[in-house]
Amino acid sequence: MRFIKLAPAIFLFLAFPLFSDIPKPLHAPRAYDLLRGENLKICVPACYYCDDALEIQNIGNHQRFCQWNAAEQAETYDLLQRIANTWNKSNYAHNYLAYGMTTPNLRSERFSWAVIPYPDNGWNRLKQIRVIWNVAFGSPQNSDEERVAKATSIKEQTQYLSDPYMPDYGSGKPAKDAFCDGKVIENQRVFEGKRINVFYDRAPERIVDENPHFLITPKRHAVKLTELTEDEYTESMETAQKIADYFQRDNPRCTLHMLHKTGEAAGQTVPHWHLHVIVVKDDAYLPSFQFPCVKSPTSCTRISSPFLHLQRQFGRIWQGCQNFIYLMLPNRKLTDEELNERVAFYSREFEQSF
Question: Is residue 16 part of a domain?
């Protein structure tokens, strides 16, 4: 009789772990970690686009981009400012690119920001081509020993990461750039936030076909990352999360590529900070940067037929060549009619979804 009374409590005790969200343990510090915060860390990446790139990783429970909360976005802002500060103080680089990719098709996705410097006296055009090559074909992978060696070799360039920095918010006054132009705002804006605008790119990225391409910019004029306020950055990332949720909600093969550039050497063409959000509706177009050897979880499975294996390998090489060519070619500008059509469509969609 007593057992019958206790049975519901015993069942709930045993079943609770199955229905609860058990937090994952934090990763132990590694030798290639350069700076650890409360939720994030700066480290040498496993998959690198160039030898001196850094990576911002989440060391807590939120591994997907859409899971990152406001506190983690604010900490990302702080770590990006520290990276910019240490490169400036060491006179290594004043131009840099931050890149991240999110896709719901990878169950083991670990979203991170790769931060790539473009040194003042470097061969930056060649470096841009190398980064595009790694985007198209998949970036090489470092072993733990190689990551530790790289952390040692770039110690001089990262020695000021823990130093305090002084934000420089700039004047904030409107300037003669596209994102401060009232006509551009009227013709290309698809969403307006409290501190940011979202535009549809007049020359969207093309990988085989046109990809939806959005630009998130602060309303206040800010040329580079270090001139952004924390609120502007976090609202930009929260808006990018809403865009990701909108596209990925009904399309499980949808991948979003996000990047922002500081400085002409890094490829910044408009002197007003902006976050590119490029939507690739089929994740087979680009390889996975978490696992450079594969393009989707299905290709992690063992292939019994050697013919199918060779066919897939040649398919990857051919697709990589197409990716590289499309990424290197200049994008075609939309006509006024095409632009108006896209702006009207996404304005309605985002107004209903956000």
Answer: no
Q: What residues contact 92, with CB distance under 8 A and at least 6 apart?
A: 117, 119, 120, 157
Q: Is 283 helix (H, G, I), strand (E, B) or coil?
A: helix
In sequence order, what DSSP letters do the residues of 224-260 get, joined into one string?
Answer: SGGGS-HHHHHHHHHHHHHHHHHHHSS-TT-EEEEEE
The structure tokens listed for 63 are: 């591994």
End-to-end CA distance of the chain: 54
Report whether 214 contacts 243 (CB < 8 A). yes
Within 10 angstroms of residue 182's Cβ, the number of other Cβ atoms is: 8
Tell me how crowded residue 191 is: count the other CB atoms within 10 A of its CB.
21
DSSP states of 63-77 as a string?
-SGGG--HHHHHHHH
Instruction: Residue 188: give the domain boundaries.
Output: 33-294+304-353
Identify whether 3 is part of a domain.
no
Does residue 287 lie in a domain region? yes
Supply the CATH number for residue 207's domain: 3.30.428.10
20 part of a folded domain: no
- In tens digits, what is the pLDDT along the chain, a chain of 354 residues? 444 444 444 344 344 344 334 344 445 678 899 999 999 999 999 887 888 899 999 998 788 898 999 999 999 999 999 999 999 999 999 999 999 988 765 555 689 999 999 987 767 778 778 787 777 777 778 888 999 999 999 998 999 999 999 888 887 888 899 999 999 999 999 999 999 999 999 999 877 678 899 999 999 999 999 999 999 999 999 999 999 999 988 787 788 999 999 998 898 999 999 999 999 876 544 433 333 333 333 333 334 455 555 656 666 666 667 666 666 667 789 999 999 999 999 999 999 988
Which pTM was predicted? 0.81
Domain count, the chain: 1
